[in-house]
DNA sequence: GTTCTAGAAC
DNA sequence: GTTCTAGAAC
């Protein structure tokens, strides 16, 4: 408290209510800034128009639309700010009709409101992505010229970056509309808003999408005994647990000091009566709902070192159990001889972990209740990155046991996972796993992969691998804790109120809780979901844009990726390469060529590769031979074992070059790979050397085909034969090099001049290219035919 | 004044 | 990815 500040005259007028009111009276109203938040196709403009034209209460409204602000054409944010400022000064309320999905994009409008002492509202049009996409795709004559197939891409990309508006940004009111009904209600609300009326502050209409995570420490952490009864740990006797709440284990789950609970021990539970009794007791003390059963992550198919893995399991479990009382972890493996179980058991006992709250269990994770007598409401799945069933092991077993409903539920929650993250999927009650085993939640976890045959292979880098495995378990346990907390919140509304009240600064509980859940959503977005476009989004994008499997020969859009990589590093997830949304198209095609077989872009399909015309050809003839091997994304992944594949891809490329030469004998082809491809899934370019194409537009396009960035297929094959890998790939710096003719090597100041030059340059190709069949022309193919 | 590019925005 | 535009380059 600075007495000077309090006593000083209003050199800088504080945004006090009285001052604001005085100004309003002068202007005869109380303007407001309404920042619309939503992707293209969400109906922002319709909303704004409806408010502007439908106002029944006399409030003057101005729609500030960035798509039309420049004399009917798209303008800048600055123009919008200026227009908004002018309107507000005239006492008019404004609707900011631009996407405003990211905090930074809307910050200036919030600031403007602050400067002019008017309330700033956010209206988030949170319609389902597919609704926005389909609207954006099908609309005609859009002011911002965003329609058709590209709209899908744009919407998807924008939604990835979406940051839910927060009160802490400076909004006095945030309203979420989740469907057209909500939107109508919001329009009605603003239409009925008189010039001097104001709307209540706070957050309205937000759907709670997941378990609340913020505040969980307060709720479960040791030391906060107000809402959680402390576990008494291993010293409690079984009889004392009759009241249930205190002992995390029911008496039927006989946990030895050795902490391994084997199925044999539980055989007696097959007795129906006892089972019923068990179930009853479990229900009453609810231990099942506080138990997580999990398989060892990454140690099966992903071949993670068992010794290291067991250390990490014990470490993360110990940390977790120290932080949270009243929860139980069960490490499950099928075999009695399981080495990971025995290692974990050993290390856990050395570390003196509470053996009643961390147990190892031999059995089938999908039959813990019926066969093992264990009640575990939450089970973890060692998932694959696409969250798809199959593949064998625990993943296949869980998806099989849970039935289709798990697949559907999973799709609703997430589309893909990055190594080191997990996602909670509430298991529908129709699922056999729910009905039979009492599993209410499955948490999919993706760990690090040390298997060269699987995606995201870490090449035995255990520094990275261990970090990711740590992350994976931490993420799993945190998500588990959030489920427990959410359950307890449901059971005990008093505790929930305590949690909110203990938030302290919030004027009302509802607001606080909503903000919390909101924070949790953000956390979920940043931490749990993959930073790149989700598989579902990709799918929808592909559907909307098919065929969308063009090759992107530039890296011009790498910036957002890099930013996201930064985020990953922060959260401990280290990715070798982040593939953007469009970068997935070839992968999608390679995995499911049948889906696209009716497009004329696909020239040939085999078990090993797909040949297709590049959607944005950089020359008269430009096709791609795409490998269909999962996990083989670029030259960096190529090993000796892939040589036969590379040779066959080369042959396929040659065949197509020859076919094109039959049509146009003047062409010359080069076959090669980009050192650093923009799209995942290894693909070989077959490109004619005329570079006569309107799609070749910039320096990066040009340099990606005419500098050492382009790696001739023959050289790649030779290099792998000799060294086992493609070592001499050049980096992306060469893409910024000066523009030189690929024939005479003359330099040119810009793309148009260069293109003009190459259209007439008749120089022979550099001698280096004329060797080893790097160039394919009629003469070379004739020669090849002879030999 | 016109052309071109880089970067923002979609 | 494409479109658009401000400002650099000519």
Plain-language structure description:
The protein is an alpha/beta fold and 787 residues long. Helix content is 39%, strand content 13%. Strands 7-10-9-8-11-13-12 form a 7-stranded mixed beta sheet, sandwiched between helices. Strands 14, 15, 16, 17, 18, 19 and 22 form a 7-stranded antiparallel beta sheet that branches. A 6-stranded parallel beta sheet has the order 2-3-1-4-5-6, with helices on both faces. Helix 11 packs across helix 12 (339-350) and helix 16 (462-491) crosses helix 17 (493-501). It is flat, with a radius of gyration of 31 Å. The chain starts with a helix and ends with a helix. Residues 1-27, 208-284 and 493-576 have low confidence and may be disordered. It binds a DNA duplex (10 and 10 nucleotides) through helix 7. This is Macro domain-containing protein. Pfam families: AAA_33 (PF13671), DcpS_C (PF11969), Macro (PF01661), zf-C2HE (PF16278).
């Amino acid at each position: 408290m600075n007495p000077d500040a309090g006593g000083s005259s209003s050199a800088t007028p504080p945004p006090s209510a009285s001052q604001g009111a005085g100004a309003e009276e002068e202007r005869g109203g109380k303007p407001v800034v309404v920042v619309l938040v939503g992707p293209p196709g969400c109906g922002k403009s319709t909303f704004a128009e409806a408010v502007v034209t439908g106002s029944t209460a006399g409030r003057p409204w101005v729609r500030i639309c960035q798509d039309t602000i420049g004399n009917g054409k798209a303008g800048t944010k600055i123009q919008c700010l200026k227009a908004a400022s002018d309107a507000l000064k005239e006492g008019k309320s404004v609707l900011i009709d631009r996407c405003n999905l990211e905090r930074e994009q809307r910050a200036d409008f919030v600031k403007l409101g602050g400067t002019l002492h008017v309330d700033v509202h956010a209206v988030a049009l949170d319609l389902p992505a597919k609704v926005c996409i389909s609207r954006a795709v099908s609309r005609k004559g859009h002011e911002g010229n965003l329609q058709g197939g590209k709209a899908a891409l744009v919407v998807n990309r924008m939604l990835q970056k979406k940051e839910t508006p927060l009160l802490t940004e400076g909004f006095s009111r945030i309203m979420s509309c989740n469907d057209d009904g909500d939107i109508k209600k919001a329009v009605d609300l603003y239409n009925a808003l008189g010039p001097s009326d104001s709307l209540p502050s706070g957050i309205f209409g937000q759907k709670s999408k997941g378990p609340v995570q913020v505040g969980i420490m307060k709720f479960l952490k040791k030391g906060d005994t107000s809402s959680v009864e402390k576990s008494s740990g291993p010293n409690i006797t079984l009889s004392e647990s009759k009241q249930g709440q205190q002992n995390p284990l029911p008496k039927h789950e006989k946990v030895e000091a050795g902490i391994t609970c084997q199925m044999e021990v539980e055989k007696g539970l097959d007795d129906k009566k006892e089972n019923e009794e068990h179930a009853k007791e479990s229900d009453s003390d609810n231990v099942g709902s506080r138990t997580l059963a999990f398989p060892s992550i990454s140690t099966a198919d992903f071949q993670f070192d068992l010794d290291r893995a067991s250390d990490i399991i014990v470490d993360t479990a110990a940390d977790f159990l120290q932080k949270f009382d009243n929860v139980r972890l069960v490490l499950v493996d099928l075999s009695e001889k399981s080495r990971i179980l025995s290692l974990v058991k050993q290390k856990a006992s050395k570390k003196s972990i509470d053996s009643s709250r961390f147990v190892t269990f031999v059995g089938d994770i999908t039959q813990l209740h019926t066969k093992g007598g264990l009640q575990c409401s939450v089970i973890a799945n060692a998932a694959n990155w696409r969250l798809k069933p199959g593949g064998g092991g625990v993943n296949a077993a869980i998806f099989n046991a849970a039935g289709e409903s798990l697949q559907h539920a999973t799709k609703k929650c997430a589309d893909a996972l990055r190594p080191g993250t997990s996602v909670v999927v509430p298991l529908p009650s129709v699922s056999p796993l729910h009905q039979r085993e009492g599993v209410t939640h499955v948490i999919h976890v993706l760990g690090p992969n040390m298997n060269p045959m699987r995606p995201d292979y870490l090449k035995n880098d255990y520094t990275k691998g261990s970090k990711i495995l740590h992350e994976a378990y931490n993420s799993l346990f945190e998500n588990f804790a959030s489920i427990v907390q959410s359950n307890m919140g449901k059971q005990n509304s008093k505790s929930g109120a305590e949690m909110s009240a203990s938030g302290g600064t919030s004027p009302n509980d509802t607001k606080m809780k909503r903000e919390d859940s909101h924070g949790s959503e953000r956390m979920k977005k940043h931490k749990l979901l993959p930073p790149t476009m989700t598989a579902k989004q990709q799918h929808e994008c592909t559907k909307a844009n098919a065929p969308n499997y063009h090759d992107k020969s530039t890296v011009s859009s790498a910036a957002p990726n890099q930013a996201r990589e930064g985020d990953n590093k922060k959260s401990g997830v280290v990715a070798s390469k982040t593939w953007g949304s469009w970068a997935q198209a070839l992968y999608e095609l390679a995995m499911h060529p049948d889906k696209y077989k009716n497009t004329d872009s696909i020239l040939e399909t085999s078990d090993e590769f797909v040949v297709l015309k590049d959607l944005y050809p950089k020359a008269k003839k430009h096709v791609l031979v795409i490998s269909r091997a999962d996990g083989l994304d670029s030259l960096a992944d190529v090993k000796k074992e892939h040589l036969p594949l590379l040779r066959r891809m080369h042959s396929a490329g040659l065949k197509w070059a020859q076919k094109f030469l039959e049509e146009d004998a003047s062409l010359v082809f080069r076959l090669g790979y980009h050192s650093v491809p923009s799209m995942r899934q290894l693909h070989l370019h077959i490109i004619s050397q005329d570079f006569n194409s309107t799609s070749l537009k910039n320096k990066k396009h040009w340099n990606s085909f005419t500098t050492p960035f382009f790696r001739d297929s023959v050289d790649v094959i030779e290099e792998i034969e000799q060294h086992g890998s493609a070592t001499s790939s050049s980096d992306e710096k060469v893409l910024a090099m000066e523009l030189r003719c690929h024939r005479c090597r003359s330099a040119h100041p810009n793309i148009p001049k260069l293109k003009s030059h190459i259209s007439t340059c008749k120089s022979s190709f550099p001698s280096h290219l004329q060797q080893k069949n790097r160039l394919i022309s009629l003469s070379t193919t004739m020669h090849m035919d002879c030999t």
